[in-house]
Design a protein that fits this description.
4-stranded antiparallel beta sheet; alpha+beta; about 230 residues; DNA-binding; homodimer; elongated
DNA sequence: CGACTGATTGACTGCCCTCAAATAGGGTGG
DNA sequence: CCACCCTATTTGAGGGCAGTCAATCAGTCG
């Protein structure tokens, strides 16, 4: 029951097509020559941590594929609160739009968490490539469908779950997505504030709830890190 | 600032292509002969009021285009609460998915409000048509992008707005979408309960808030109907 | 060993939901 | 035309979840 359904690895493309060993469902069903054409058209761009790759509302002037690193997609409320949508991990594509004359506005903001390597296609070449390779358009379409499903799940979670439930859910999903399995459980590098933002909960509610779970022995806390003993909720 | 951005009439197709005079952005950029091929492949189906056309979670075995009538798209929480997504008006397409081997599950439930005429393409012909006409795939993709933007707006509204604000917003949007302009303002055929469901607010909160607005002279209420004097909020 | 940032804890507040009970529209049948 | 019923709606009282504010504590890094 993952909240985040990213566009990675449903059917693996041929392995090691890139020097990076990058796999992505964006390449599903494409011939190696076609993939090479894609890669040739892409610019590789390196982003430092906490850098905005695309900003909600601005024209979608490019399409992206995360090669290495990590990023997060979120929306901003008029009051400036961030509404977490999903993590973006290597292999995930974003910024693809329906074919139009003009770039439509971005739906969400995407920001790196750590140093990341991103393949970038500008608007024109993205348009050209997706019209040249119908399979690619289909794959981009599938990525959009996944985003739609993902946002829908976030919506339902926000509408029907309590603060405690949303926190629990975010913990489990973050463990799946960005957790490192250690000797005593799953370690997640997140501050209380990160977790609170993602779950849509105040910093204090998050702190109180996490403390309660720690008292019950479900997890242990270090500064800026959470150690989840098991994934039961 | 419409919450609902449906797939209608961005650039009009040639007029009166159908006996119904149906226009839809689904036909954008298609030649008349192509549109005829589309229509020939479609089955016309009439739904009585309050009939479910597609149900969330079930395989998306068809693609739809509403010709006449009205419908609503919503999601269900595990507790059975309905989360309103958007109205569906004539010209709106829904149920289109990314090209896949198997039909993916529907993202939302779509239900008629009144008797409606719907064009239906089954899974196979939908797949065949969208691969035959790249422009059609693009248009279906655009419809999906609109749904994504729409759900995102609902999400942000749910996360950042108070009950009062959400009610106001739903009133204005419903006025745009399904209101009839009368002599004294815009009439909307909605019960308190409908409005409360859509805004994600309890029946009582809706009643209290509407009464307050009525006292202030912003609107008048009849049983099962709301008369909005102006659209200011 | 400061200093800064992250985390904790308690007290208070407020929005909005729940429940109960009464009221009013509006159609229907006599 | 009126009585009646079903449903929509109103209104009040009470309560709970979770947010806000304030003050303190603790970990890490220079």
């Amino acid at each position: 029951m993952a909240l985040v359904m990213n566009a990675n690895l449903t059917r693996p493309a041929s392995p090691n097509l890139l020097p990076l060993g990058l796999r992505s469902s964006l390449f599903d069903g494409l011939a190696p020559s076609e993939i090479n054409a894609l890669l040739a058209a892409a610019r590789k761009r390196r982003f430092p941590p906490h850098e905005v790759i695309q900003r909600e509302g601005e024209p979608a002037t490019g399409s992206f594929l995360l090669a290495t690193g990590r990023a997060v997609a979120y929306k901003l409320t008029p009051e400036g609160e961030r509404v977490f949508l999903h993590w973006i991990v290597p292999g995930d594509a974003f910024g693809f739009t329906a074919p139009r004359r003009k770039p439509p506005p971005c739906v969400a903001t995407v920001q790196t968490l750590r140093e990341s390597l991103v393949l970038v296609w500008d608007w024109e070449s993205s348009l050209a490539l997706t019209s040249q390779f119908p399979q690619l358009r289909g794959n981009a379409c599938a990525a959009m469908a996944n985003h739609l499903a993902s946002v829908s799940r976030v919506l339902v979670a926000r509408c029907s779950q309590t603060a405690r439930q949303r926190l629990a859910r975010m913990l489990v999903e973050s463990a799946d997505q960005i957790g490192r399995t250690g000797s005593e459980g799953i370690e997640i590098d997140l501050t209380n504030e990160d977790l609170a933002d993602m779950a849509g909960v105040s910093l204090f509610t998050a702190s109180r709830q996490l403390s309660e779970w720690q008292r019950k022995g479900i997890l242990a806390k270090r500064r800026g890190r959470i150690l989840l003993h098991s994934r039961n909720v």
